[in-house]
Amino acid sequence: MLLRPTSAADINVFLGWVHDEEAMVMWTGPTFSWPLTRFQLELYLTNSLRQYWTGIDGTTGAVLGHGTLLFDDEARVCRLGSIIVDPDRRGEGLGRKLVELLRAKAFGTPTVTELTLGVIAQNNPARSLYESLGFRGTEVVRLTPMRDQMWEVISMRQCRENQA
């Protein structure tokens, strides 16, 4: 897998990956409203403070995943977010590779000493992946509405010196 900056051309791929409201909330929490639209994703890509990355197959160029980095230079922290991989390819290690590449980009910035992320508590595959990569849960930081329920969002972090 290789990383390249996300482009508007990737939006249709992402829309094809998010089949229902639950998948959308697992991906981005309360960022979007259901049904997910192209307009929402176009607006999402305009935040100049965030870096948007697309994971692609190095041979075919096929889009395999997406994630973001948000650097807070003053706090020396980078926030990893919006991690998603092709649902038809789950179980192939794409999520692991995507997070490893994004982590390398984040810690490639000399001032970054910590990488953080938020994960829905019910998203067991994502939580297990992050834990296997050395991230540790710190606390429930908010509740995200999902239909008639409130889902917990767990903050996880990894210090530069504790990379798995």
TrEMBL record:
Identify the Pfam families for this entry.
Answer: Acetyltransf_1
N-acetyltransferase domain location, by residue? Answer: 11-157
Family annotation (InterPro entries): Acyl_CoA_acyltransferase, GNAT_dom
| UniProt KW keywords | Transferase
| Top-level taxon of the source organism | Bacteria
Question: Which GO MF terms are attached to this record?
Answer: acyltransferase activity, transferring groups other than amino-acyl groups
CDD domains under this entry?
NAT_SF
- Stored SUPFAM superfamilies: Acyl-CoA N-acyltransferases (Nat)
Q: Look up the coiled coil feature and give its residue ranges.
A: none
Q: What is this protein called?
A: RimJ/RimL family protein N-acetyltransferase
The root-end lineage is: Bacteria, Bacillati, Actinomycetota, Actinomycetes, Micrococcales
